[in-house]
Structure formats: structure tokens, C-alpha cells
């Protein structure tokens, strides 16, 4: 604080207005200065130390700094590592969903993802309502600084859930490229070029998450899949984006801003998703192949029990056998494609097609006929529904078996090579057992031990007291 006073002020007003040599302009009786630097400037420029009648408190000329609190240090650390913080929260959401993901028809998972969408949409709307430079309400001020981290965590969790379900429901290069594209889009959101387009990129991701949620939800609720179900999901996604645009319009009635930042990115994503589904890039959720393999024989030995027999000449201690054919051929052999496919509870019966492809040295990949069509019934269990198909046109070379929906969307593919069996002696089969509850087949010895233990358990149980 700098205070200017007049000593022995004269009673004559004219004398008070006389100029004082080497002194600056007249100073008010009390001049409070808010900042230390301003006090120093006022002392040097307006009130020189040699000027008579000026009293300067030495403590006011000392620059004092506020001791930073723990929260100040945390904020400084976050400011220095802003990009890393966003990446950690995004991948934290991704890992969280990897560890907690469950079946697509799990009610808790569907409710959780719906809650995530509501919170995420609310945060994005609040950002539009209170942009940079506008103070949020008092009840939001303490948590407002964490909104960026919350948005990234929710985006990471939602997109990871959808990508995991896509991985389970498809195979082939194009659908995997779609999943990789989701990762690339989210990574690009952290680049400076894209961060300048923040509202646009966030609307793109929100539109994608909303529609993918309905893509997962509607087949479970309706009990069927197909083009009309996917089209309904896209329509509900468009309705959601339109609702968001109407809410933003209340705070920003700028049609150009709404068109550039909401309408074009939001509805553009819906059009892109519909096009990708039509060309077969997006798989037909919610069906998923849980297990598949090629065998020499498939035999149903009892209700719910299949014996899967195969011949393998390779051995881990003989490296020269590792590159041999996957399917060893003898006269009369046929390959059996055994698979188990999952669909949610109360899902209507649907049809799948098994196609066999051979890599002809002259014609390339060629298919045999129209494929084998099978009607699949959903039992709603984790094990799914089991089925198998075979072909009698086996020849040495590279083979591929593809499982498709009736509409032609690929669900699963498996490549294998066939070659002559160099051992003319009797065959020794490796037998695996497929049960109703176990997704992957069990070794025959393990299944026999389990069956023996189950049979002996009632006999060894102590009698109940009467």
C-alpha cells in the first residue's frame, strides 16, 4: 500500500496549488494500489522517493508469492501433461470395459451403456451451454475441471464395448478395418489439427456411439436381425442427433454453426454407417461364432455330447513337421466344419450358410455350389448352438470355409491346407469332446474323468439323517 499525505498543509488554498519543483502531479490524499507491481510503478513514476510529502511502506515494495496448495500442484501437473492425461483416461475406459464386458444381451451392461450415453451427452451439451470464457453454475465449478477426462473415459468405454462385440461377430479384413478405423478416429482426435475441430469430432463420436448402441440393443429386444433392424437403429440415431441439435439451438441460434458442428458430422456418420452395412463391412450383430474347427470326423454320441476326431502328424519336438498340412488326406476323407454360434435369449430361428472355397492354381479362389444352408435355433446359453457341415470335393491345396448369414454378411472364416497322409498305417485319432456348457472342446481324458466323478458322487455321498 502506498499512501501520499501532505505535511503542514497551508490554510491558504492558493498556496496549496503552488507547484513543487521536481515533483510530479498532485496526488490524492490516499491512493490504494491493488498489486505490488503497480505499487512499484506508481512509486517510481508518480511519487519519486525524493519527493517531499510522500511516505512509502517498505513492505509494500516486496513481491510476495502465494504458497501453492496441493490442488494447485495437481492442476500444474495436469497442464504440463494434458495429452497424456486424456490418453490415460481414454484407455482406462477401454481397459475397464475389456475386463467387465459380458454378453450382448446382459441387462446390466445395456443399462450401464445407456447411462454412459446420457452422461456423455449431458457433458457435451453443457460444454455448448458454457463454452470457454463462460462461468458454469456454482454446483458445477468444482467438477467442471474434470469434464475433459470424463468425456474421454466415457468415449473409451463405449467404443471399446462396441469394438469387442464387433470382433466377436465377424472375421475377414473389411470388418477388422472398420474396427481399426474407430481406433484411428479416436487417436486422431488428440492431434492438434483435429483438436481445433473439437466440437465436430466429438459430435462424430457421439453419433457413432448412439447408433452402435441401438445396433446392439434392438436385435436383443426384437429377437431378430437384418437390414430393417439396422435401418431402425440408424433412424433412432438420427432422431437423437436432431434432439441434440434442437437443445443446442436454444443457446446458439446460429444456423451456420449448427450446420457445420452438429448436422453435417452427426447425420454424416449415420449415412456412412448405413453404407458400410450395405457393403458388408459392419457385421450382423448380435450373433457371434464362439468356436469353430476342421475335423476328420464329427459324431454325436449322446444328447449334448459330440466327439470331434482329428489327425495331426506335427509334434512340438519335431520342427520339420510344423509346416505340414492342417488336414491329412486319405481316400474317402471329408473335412467337417464344426462350429457353435451364439444368439441372445428368445432370438428367433435364423439361417446361416456354409461355403467352401478352394484356391485353384489357375482360377484362384472358387466356390462349390451355393453352399450348405442351416437353420439355427437360439437356446440362449453361453455355449450357443452347435452345428457342422462337410464337403466331398476335397483335393490337396489351400481351402477356406466361410459362415454367412442368409443375407450374405460374413460371420466367420477359417483357412486350412489339405495334403496327402504319408503314413499308410492305421490312424490314431485325437478325440475332443464338445459338451453343451463348455465353449471349447475338452480332451477326451478330461471329459472321462469329469464323467466318472459325476457318476461316483451320488454313490459316495453320505446318507442324509432322518
TrEMBL record:
Pfam families for the chain: DUF2914
Keywords for the protein's UniProt record, in alphabetical order: Membrane, Transmembrane, Transmembrane helix
Highest taxon, organism lineage: Bacteria
DUF2914 domain span: 351-417
Signal peptide: none
Residue span of region Disordered: 1-23
Residue spans crossing the bilayer: 150-167, 173-191, 203-221, 227-245, 257-279
Protein name: DUF2914 domain-containing protein
Organism classification: Bacteria, Pseudomonadati, Myxococcota, Myxococcia, Myxococcales
